[in-house]
Structures are given as structure tokens and as C-alpha cells.
Amino acid sequence: MTYQVKDIALADDGRARIEWADLDMPVLAGIRERFRRERPLEGLRVSACLHVTTETANLMRVLVAGGADVVLCASNPLSTQDDTAAALQQHYGVRTYAIKGEDTETYYRHIDRAIDHRPHITMDDGADVVGRIHASRPEALGDILGGTEETTTGVIRLAAMAKDGALRYPIVAVNDAKTKHFYDNRYGTGQSTLDGIMRATNRLLAGRTLVVSGYGWCGRGVALRAAGMGMQVVVCEVDPFKALEAHMDGYRVMPAAEAARFCDIWITVTGDLNVVGPQAFANLKTGAIVCNSGHFNSEIDIPWLEGNAVSKRELKPLVTEYRLGDGRSVILLAEGRLVNLSAAEGHPAEVMDMSFANQALCAEHLVRNASQMGPGVYPVPDSIDEDIARLKLASLGVGIDTLTPEQQEYLDSWQLGTV
Q1: Could you tell me which of 409, 271, 334 has the C-alpha nearest to residue 100?
Q2: Which residue of 88, 164, 282, 416 is most buried, as measured by CB atoms within 10 A?
Q3: Is-contact 72 98, C-beta < 8 A?
Q4: How far apart (Å, rounded) are the C-alpha atoms in residues 85 and 7?
Q5: In degrees, to the nearest 5, what angle opens at C-alpha 64 toward C-alphas 61 and 69?
Q6: What DSSP string describes 96-117?
């Protein structure tokens, strides 16, 4: 099986959509042109487990332009755009294993096909490839120089592996770059999550109460956009500093069990387990909508719903009603998977321009420096982060000031004070 997509005949439609996304990805396009000239990835094999979207396709084009031999599989069973997968295989020379709605067995079979590529570099959304290699495919470790990880959930997993001494090669935490989490997590997740909810439900948001679990960059973005749509926002947090910040930003802050009583729509963005669980379900008013915009569907205790519902039915695609024994109903969107990618198209291309620029430049960084890095989780170098920010500003036609030599000397000194 040299590739597996839903329908290769969709390739031309996918190419048109990829080119449309490319119009809003000028930073990545500039990197692609440099990579085509310099070929920094010549002869290297890359195995990527990412959301198979039009924006990801433009990252794959950069890697191929740089000389890499690339295999791509899906990082989520519901986020694949089938026409994009077909186009990558047919038009862009990227061997692709991804089908929207694939079952768990197929999902991991596709990951194994990516590992069979014997990569020099891995790219992950959620660390499933890294986890699979370390748990059951250690023979692939011998060829690997390093990897990248683009999600909060994946970085948490990898940090735990590193802490336990289990991680065997260096990973650059692309997720933690300023040009990634400030913009992708906040502006991308904020807009695309609400987009997914509206596409799935066609519900009016204004006047309703939104509960958001987690007030990291994703939670901040969701709360900001929801408030802008006229929603009343309640934040649930375990971190006292983030909870205080949410309060000072003007949102109500309370424990999940209490927030459930007010909830019309609940969004989880924590990267943790069973954030919406039995106590919250017990207090939800009937008809409340629950969904997730964190990487894995473990944030909502779906097994509890499955075990305690007296009936279950699909009201419309990606909208499932669970009827509980007391007559209340709970509405789950997109099987608890990433609602912004399962029910919509994920982040806008302009946001992903910076995230995927980080991916491309960090792959180049690993080629140059992995031999000196050793196993562990590493930050994106500041020089890469700053270059991407400057390139993005230039593409937007935005200019900024520069320090004069006198100003720089003042900042670098300690002798000058009150005059």
C-alpha cells in the first residue's frame, strides 16, 4: 500500500483549495522559494503526523522543495480534508495516508506506514508518532536526527517522557514559539472553535453562556472571541494565576460543577483528562452542548456518557444527543474530537503561516544542530521566532522602530539612573 486516501479523483479540487490557502501564507511561500534554491533537506526522510488540511499541504510543499522525501499521515481521524489528501498524493509528491472518519485501527496503521518510512525527522501533532516509535517501533530510532511537536498536548507528553528518561532523541517544541502560541493558539483557536460550533449547530451565540475549561492561550482566545460574539463567559481553571487573570479580564470564574448549572455551550482546551466528568454532567441543564478544542477527545468523559445514557441518536452530522435517565439531554459535538477541525476547516491560513514557518525552519535547524543536542525537549531558537515575526510584519506592510545606538547602550548599562 503506497498510499491511502478516500478518492484520488478529488485531487484537482484539493489542489485549488491548497493554492487558495497559499495566498494567505506569504512567510511560508518565501521559505519555500529559499528551500528550493538551497535544498537544506536534501536526501532526508520526513514522517509527518499532522492535521491533513490545505495549510498543512503548503508546509509539505516547503519540505519537498527543500529536498525531503515526505510521508504524511493524519493526527486526528476527523480532521482530514479528503481532497487535500488526494492532491498531496497526486500533485505534490507526498505519500499520504489519511481518510476523514478513519477508525482507530486504520489510524494507527497509517502511523505505522509513516514509521516504515524510517524517518530522519518526525513532525507530530500530539506526539503519537513519537509515542508509537518508543513504545513498539524502536527499530526506527536508529535513523532519527530529531523531531518537532506542534501541540500543547504533545509537548506535555514529551516533557513527561523526557522527565522519565524515556525520550531518545531531541524534539523542538514548535508549539511554544511566540509566533505559534500567541497567534495560532489565541487567534486561530478562538476563531476556528466558534466557527466549528456554528457550522455544526447553526445556533445563535449571542446571549448564551459559554463555559471554557482552561485559560491558557487557547482558552484566552476562545473567551475573547465568545465575548465578542455577545456570549456570557465562565472560566474553569486549576491554576490560581490563570484563574486570577481570567477574573481580572472580566469573566466569571468558578469550579466546573458549579459552572455546569449555567452552561449553554462548554468548550474544553486543557490537554488533560475528563475535564467534563460525572459531577459536571449531573449539573448540566438539558440541551447543553459540550465540545472539545484540545488535541485528544479524552477531555470529555465520553465513556461516562456512553455508560449512563438511556438512548443516543445523531441529530445531524457531528451532533449527537445523549438522553440521560432523568430525562435530560446532553449534546456532544464531533465525538469529542477537535471541533474546529472536525466540524470546520481549522485555523485560518494566515495564522498557520507562522506556525508552519516554525516547523520548516526548525526542521532545517535540526539538520544543522541535532548532533549536538541530545535527547530532550528544546525551545524554538529566539532567532527563528524573531525572523518569522519580522517576515510576517513585512508581508503585512507593517513597519516598526529600531533602537538607536544610544538607546541600546542605555538598556545595556547599569550606571545611568535618575538625572
Answers
A1: 334
A2: 88
A3: yes
A4: 9
A5: 135
A6: EE--TT--HHHHHHHHHHHHHT
Q: What are phi and psi of 335, to 5 degrees?
A: 60, 20
Give per-residue pLDDT as tens, 360-402: 999 999 999 999 999 999 999 999 999 999 999 999 999 999 9
What is the pLDDT, as a whole number, of residue 416?
77
Which CB contacts under 8 angstroms, 24+ apart, belong to 105-108? 106/77, 107/74, 107/77, 108/132
Q: Quote the pTM value.
A: 0.89
Judge contact between 319 and 342, C-beta under 8 A. no
Q: What is the DSSP letter of 126?
A: S
Query: Which residues on adjacent β-strands are paired with residue 267?
Result: 212, 291
User: Residue 106, class by beta-carbon neighbours within 10 Å (0-12 exposed, 13-18 middle, 19+ buried)?
Assistant: middle
The distance from CA 126 to its chain's CA centroid, rounded to whole angstroms, is 8
Q: Is the dihedral of CA 81, 84, 86, 92 positive or negative?
A: negative
Q: How far is CA 143 from CA 50, 119, 121, in A?
A: 21, 6, 9
| CA gap 113, 265 in Å, rounded | 38
Asked whether 239 and 185 are in contact (CB, 8 A), the reply is no
Dist CA 259 CA 272 (whole Å): 18
Q: What angle do CA 304, 282, 274 make, to 5 degrees?
A: 45
Q: Report pLDDT digits (tens) over 56-92.
A: 999 999 999 999 999 999 999 999 999 999 999 999 9
Farthest CA pair distance, the chain: 76
CA distance 310 to 174: 43
- The DSSP annotation for 13-72 comes to HHHHHHHHHHTT-HHHHHHHHHHHHH-TTTT-EEEEEE--SHHHHHHHHHHHHTT-EEEE
Q: Give the chain's domains with CATH numbers.
A: 8-180+347-396 (3.40.50.1480), 187-342 (3.40.50.720)
The secondary element (H helix, E strand) that includes residue 362 is helix 349-369
Instruction: Please state, in angstroms and rounded to a whole number, the distance separating the CA atoms of residues 139 and 245.
Output: 46
Residue 166 CA to residue 160 CA, distance in Å, equals 9
Radius of gyration of the chain from Cα atoms? 22
